[in-house]
Amino acid sequence: MTVEDLLKRFEGKLVYVSGEKDTVIDSVEYDSRKVSHKSLFVAVKGLVSDGHDYLSSLDEKGVSCVIVSSERAAEFSKLKCCVISADDTRAALSYVSAYFFGEVSLAIPVIGITGTNGKTSTTYMLEALFSNAGYNPGVIGTVAYRWNGNEIAAPNTTPESRDLHKLFHDMKKDGVDCVIMEVSSHGLALGRVNDIAFQGAVFTNLTRDHLDYHKTFEEYFEAKKILFRLLDKSPRQNKFACINHDDEYGMKILKSRNDYSYPFYSFGLSADADFFPVDNSLVTSISSVKYSVKHKESVYNVNLPMGGKFSFYNSLAAFSAACAFGMNGETAAEGFALIKNVPGRFERVDADCEFSVIVDYAHTNDAMEKLLSSAKELNPSKLITVFGCGGDRDKTKRPLMGEVAGKYSDTAIVTSDNPRTENPETIISDILAGMEDYKDKTVVEIDREKAIRYAISIAEKDSVVVIAGKGHEDYQIIGTEKHHFDDREIAKKYMELSTSLSGAVS
Asked: What are the pLDDT digits (tens) for 31-64?
């Protein structure tokens, strides 16, 4: 690809500033550390650094071409490399990357899943359903980016646009024929998915989260809605959206369905939804969810090998999306048998104990309430909850999470999560503000390992210990450093030693 090719392809979006138009480009980068001689570097202003600050040094190293902000084009017109300007360089990074990596989303279907909670579980479930139907799916999400036995740890739920389109390219090259991806509010707001030709969109729910970034709840909701506008402009055929009928904000989206050119399908407990469980068919346990789902005149039996009532909603979201895509209902329902535990989502720690330990990623008050109410439905002799809140993140949810933990738990142990650069004691103080009515059953232990040890030491026969907040994460962020820490490993260690524990926090 040459600079001339880019200018012709994006006439009106990209403007020639200086340099040789026949310059060859063999990579697209936004990270200055990854630039080579024939790279196109897109100068993006981020939260921490600005790509424009690196242009002079990259020019000296022999970069082929740069895209700069039109506001600063004159400033860089004397660079030795080819210079192109764009009104929005972040947007330019997206559409240039899509073009450079072959616009894969035009060739294979991409289904985006958005919402506050349930995105990860729903992607795992859809992956199983598509696999059972004979597809070779790729998955992009919070836990990892996975396809054909490849697995890349996920630094972001939704990667930067360049990395996203590179993933699409690699997946297609390896035989992937559909992609199921989590679409975060950050990814939507920052334009990372602007140039994906989506086939379908799923909305799980909306609850308080990320207000440190979005500032208001309505702004957060507006970010989520971008996905449905992107789906509307997608050139693909047979598009669809599946929306949680039982969620307040899901209903708001459903009421606006006439604004869009594709069909909407709803799922929920109510018979008013397009997909709903037959009366009295829903049965949940610590390890499974079973129900019969009705769509039009047909009924399908779902047997999900995952516990928790909230798993019902995630499975119904996955089932409705598979059917809306065109999959046979029986085939879709059978696919649930292929699902293994979703890492850190109502994940039971396997150890020979008379009590159960569940690890879950719940890190909002709504997710915590769904998690603990599901645990309570198991009729435990005692429900013990270990949790904290992340530092440098939305502070408004901390007392709300504390209130939920106090309400449902027989003992609530408040500890550290990922404190990052915040003082853990300050975070805990914020949590405790919501637990004033539950002081008699609240324990504070800053050290997360000691908190888990204590929880297990007071567990009795048929107790359920819930360790919330970190889920699949195998690290703890203290300051700016990551330290290995896995709730599942720690819990298993003390479960195996449970008979020797004294029952007191040391």
From this structure: 999 999 899 999 998 878 899 999 999 999 899 9
N-to-C CA span, the chain: 64
pLDDT tens for 127-144 read 999 999 999 999 999 889
Which token pair is 52? Answer: 């424009």
Q: How far apart are CA 150 and CA 140, in angstroms?
A: 12
Q: Which is it for the CA torsion 24, 28, 29, 30, positive or negative?
A: positive
pTM of the model: 0.85
CA distance 147 to 140: 9
What CATH number is given to the structural domain containing 39?
3.40.1390.10
Is 85:68 a contact under the CB 8 Å cutoff?
yes
**Cα separation of 387 and 374, whole Å?**
16
Question: Within a 13 Å sphere around the CA of 341, how many CA atoms are in the beta-carbon half?
Answer: 16
Whether residues 22 and 118 share a domain: the answer is no
Instruction: Give per-residue pLDDT as tens, 335-365.
Output: 999 987 788 888 999 888 999 999 998 988 9
Tokens 């407990």 identify what position?
269
Q: Are residues 184 and 74 in the same domain?
A: no
